[in-house]
Amino acid sequence: MKMKLRLLFAMLAAVIAISLANAQDMPRFRWDNFTTANGLPDNHVFCVLVDGSRVWAGTENGLGLYENGAWKAFRPVDGLAHQAVLSLALDKRTGDLWVGTMGGLSRISAGRIDNFTQLNSGLSNDIVYGVGVQGDFVWTATAAGASRLNTRTGQWALFNERNTPMYEIWTYAVSPAEDKVYYAVWGGGVLEYDVKTERWKDYNDPDGETELVLMKDQGLIHEITTSVSYVDKILWVATYFGASRYDGRYWHNFLQKDSGLPSNFLNQIKAVDGNRAWFSTDKGLAYYDGTNWAVYRPALDTHKPEMEVRDAAGTVTKIAVQSAPAHNYVLGVDFQGDDLWVATAKGLSHGIRQHGPTQTAQVLRARQSIRKK
Amino acid sequence: MQLATTCRGKARLIASLAPVFALISALMLLAPTAKPARAQSEPENNKRYLSPIEMALSPDGRLLYVVCQASDELRVVDIQSGKVVDVVPVGHVPRGIVLSPDGRQIYVTNAWSDTVSVIDAATLKVVRTLPTGLEPTGIVSDRSGQTLYVANRLSNDISVIDVNTGQETKRLLAGQGASYLALSPDGKWIYGTHIYPNHGAFRAQPNSEITVIDTARQAVVERKRLHNVAGVFHVALSADGKLGVATQLRPKNLIPLAHVEHGWVFGDSLTLFGEDVGGTVQVPIDELDRYFALPWGVAITPDKAKMFVTTAGSENVTVIDVRKLLGFARTRPQSFVNDLSASANYVTARIPVGHNPRGTLLSQDGKRLYVANRLDDNLSVIDTSTERVVSTIDLGGPRTVSALRRGEQIFFTANYAFQGQFGCANCHLDATIDGLQWDLEPDGFGKDIVDNRSLENLAGTEPFKWNGGNPDMPTECGPRTEKFFYRSQSYNQQELTDLVTFVYALPYRPNRYRMANGELTPAQERGKAIFERTTYKNGQPIPQKNQCAFCHSGPKYTNQQQFDVGTAKSTDRSPLVDVPQLSNTVYSGPYLHDGSARSLEEIWTVFNPKDTHGVSNDLTKDELNDLIEYLKTL
Known about the structure:
heterodimer, A: mainly beta, Methylamine Dehydrogenase, Chain H, four-stranded antiparallel sheet, 2 helices, 30 strands, B: alpha+beta
């Protein structure tokens, strides 16, 4: 009996240690916010992309480039396809930036801008919600299906209801990788393209209910998908009704009521790896480290800076912070080392990672002590 | 399929001309006053012309490696004896050369094979063949010798090739018609040029660029914009790396060409860049009453005292005093590229050389300049101090000059035009196109704008001109050229015959969009069905004149007639346009008679609102893409 108790305590200690270690990893940031007041082209920021020390922000009124402490704007007068910039992707091999807009796809290559539209090229539609680069291929998610440009041959391939299981052609986001390409189809679940077999497969909400979740963890959480992120062979999906994680065999769904998500309404999901991801919601920015959750936002009521940490047991603790992202309505994030850049409905935020003794860890340690007592 | 076979069979420029001559003989009926020459005038013993175009020097300075474009060879010349000591067969239409930094490997680009031949410099054998983009031209190696950069003229990009694996690791976006590259002396930068202008708005001034690659990142980091420039050729750096120079053309394509006597049609010029000038500075090399057409090759002496520029259309080498040039440029803060009196301040000599001089190469000590006279099969050797040709190295081409060769010389020279301003090859760069739209005739500004048409395999596509106004090639090239273009008494009857012979002999370039087995991809098959369809989707018949395959019929996809397809502009004198051939149309953009369609797609998405140029408005976007995929294979 004593042996069993010792074993139990040892296991508990291990769990606590792991939990504490994870908690210590919950990142804290100092937030610097950019608006038109300090040079951002527009406050309504749809997307953000980091390219080394440079940061690109896609806004409702132009593409902003933050470099050497200053903003530069690109608009149609500068050659951009349209002023409303919905998506961004970087070809890391060449340094070329692909820009999805409401008027076509632009490529910015060392300052030169070339535009691809539904009139002058094989692009399926001018509203380019999502764009991604894999090797020589540029994949786009448009309002009329998916397109793939082979940058070596110039050949376009279109994917829609005629040659895929895409029953809804409003594609919203794309996440291409070497083996698979995933599409978030707004109202049509997720589409998977197998690069090797060149075959398509769809993933849908098994209960088919638009508002209810009858079959949690048995498939995609909802059909209205807004974002996909495929990293380390793990698929993360954002929807307007929760988030999903799929490892190729099992689904795990996240809802506001049983996770640290501040809202079920997600605009973007961006994975760090197979276990960690960032969630852009209408009620703040959330981070999941595989066990614990953190939410960063101006408080919904007071609008004061707020950071909340939720541990595996579901206990929520507020962390005192001095700054927060520019707005609760978060549309996207990108990483710059340990730092974050966050696109919101009212500005762009730079989350500067704080590496001092973590208050997060101190709080959790104190809580652990209370539990022991 | 038959067409594909024919095209590939004609991959060699000169070797397979017999059928063309037979065809030309048949065409004599159409050209009673300018008969193409007969096959008897081919070179003795069927020897092929060589057409030397570029050179490289062995590390010890004893051997000259000469790329021979027409014979698909690398010829090795012993400089001391001036004799050819070896011949290395390479791929089709070789165009560029570079040595590995240790001199053990010679790399030659093969423009029509889309490859690089790797030659062991010790054994002079091709030991490997590396794949590239489409129509590889210029090539450089980085300082480590691990990476090759190849400018691809038809795919408009630069291949980055890992020498160890032989694999192309990526393509970098370059200018249209990417062609020539130069490595900075410190090895940090590569500068690239392109011979066609970048895409821009219809009837706007053309723009080009010098593409700058960071060799550490293997990425394009800058594009130096060259305003109002179309056609940029060789680029070179001074030994100290502080001065760069590129040869170029500045066309006046927006005003009627017929006013040639009132001002230049092409400004032959250079772009200077680098620390010595800051930014970019364009400088003219022409004179007020004499032009030096098609500046092509360029070299700067090691001491940066002189710059040598081959003018491919004027058969000479222009010598520039660099110190005077830089000094003059510093005194003129405003652009002086259109001031043709400026060149007198820095051009010190014009050295006559052979026909169509192209590549230039300086000896390591800078005392000798070698010039490849492409249409004489020889090299001029110039003493850079006396600025005189001191010897000529015969590369061993045929002794006789055939009608075809004479025609080629006429095509590439500017000597027939008023003040030597330009020749056929100014607009038809390397006998292709220039990517420009021209206002050719004296009918007012902006009227009858014409896109530059391809010259590939023209026999059987008569009549010519955008509205079919010229019934045959002698008319197209003869009096019309004299009256509207050159403003001078140009060709005599024999010369016109020779020129027609050459133009008709220009073969198709290989089409890269067809599969090797001649079959079509599923998308191309679907596109073919659309091209050949005779009914609308609802089953109703499409009027014959509105079926793609009616007008674009026959072996070259033209019925040689003229139709109103609704694409004429209000500035065109007639709505009727000649049906162009479609073979290799993928290489001849922009499209329509005036070049207003900037891509194949725009022919139908923008310029066919009433289904007057074929039926396209019932097509889905997928189907239009399929149609275009098929058109690319023709």
